[in-house]
What does this fold into?
Amino acid sequence: MPHGTGPTERGRADWHPVHGRAAIKRWVNLAVVASQIALDAALIVVAFRTAYNLRAKIDILSSFMEPSRTTYEIMLGVVLGTLLLTFNFFGLYSLRRGVSRIDQFYRVSSAVSVGLGASLALNSFILGNGFIYSRQMLLIAWVLCIALVTVGRFAHGGVVGTLRQRRVRDRLLVVGTGNPGQHVLETIARSPWLGYEIVGVLGHADPHGKLAGQPANAVATLPGVPVLGDDSELAEIARLYNVDEVIIALNGTPHEEVLALTQTLIEAPVNVKVYPDTFQLITKNELSLDDLGGLPMVSVRNVALRGWNRGIKRVMDVALGAIILVAVSPLIVLLAMLVKLTSPGPVFHLQERIGHDGHTFLCIKLRSMARSAEEASGPVRATRDDPRRTRLGRFMRRYSLDELPQFINVLLGEMSIVGPRPERPHFVEQFRASVPGYNYRHNEKAGITGWAQVNGLRGDTSIEERTRYDLYYVENWSPLFDLKIMIKTIWLVLRPDANAY
It folds into this structure.
């Protein structure tokens, strides 16, 4: 332990307990959930009343048959109750941090769709022959309900984030002073709306009780974040520092040691989360419990892109790829003309890349570098302020416009819109030898964009991190996941990051 001090000596001096803090947090959490339910209920009523008024005033294809006031109130009450129960079933009232707005929209859309279907069945059962409804009104209400509830939740989340940041923060202890722990700390530091107050970090003790990977005079991994000791004191430090949540972010630690750490907190009112890098794999956020002839089995890896899913993905690629290619073809023609006018050489650059099952294909790009860019150096990765780029090339690469012709590769079946980014054979040979699991990413088609790219892993970034994100994508694929990545890609193109070069 650093400086030879015990947790009691050090903790009593630094720890400032807040009387009744747990009770205050419970009331605050209750108020957050109650206000969210009330807001959802109000917006659902507004959506259906607005849809009813619009349908009553505008006859579209057929005349409006107005139900009696009593019937309408019963219908609205059933819809409201059913939707709120469905929201709860979909986990929309569980307190979660850091959920993206795209994911919120998906969950609200799914819950509203399922809830409306259930409310139709329930209204039909309760009202019988008196159940009169307009399909057009229902369609309007469905759209308005999704839109209003989603916007309301964005606004509510902003208020709750401000409240967490300024008033009610959870005290967080991070276990791990290596790269995974550093990544967790940096993420929390740049996301104050998550509402965490970092009390410190713990190193990992080796079997001899020494702080593994840290010298005796260990320093904070972030300014103002102290190293409080090692994880052999986890339970006592969590109690002394009034910790609400522990994140275990260790690198290459055996599973049994991680489980042993969580067991030390089993009697404490502390939430425990494990950063996936601890297990050296990427899995779904929630492990699934399966049954094998009566034996419980925890499923930690299910490859989603198999069988029918591949067919669905191909249909999406062809349909969306054709639409996008038609839409951007005038821009491609314009850029091709500018490439020809501004620099000598061909308009398109055909570059050999490694794709599905390790087969090579010619990736089509608008030329953004000088014609003789690699004649002397051979294959070289692009770097920030790369002198080989043309003036127009700098602009195109900044906004990923040079990659628009790759939709032709998509229609030819050589690429997918979303998937692991393809690399050149020269670099693939290097990465295969040094990055665990790298070759597995070639079991799927390469993509124009990918989960790693929309998370900032472009340009001169860690290949190991990119590979982890690629494997996560393959194991957790769904049509909605692809759409989410596409939407995030559009956002990144409009607001390009510094790694786009």
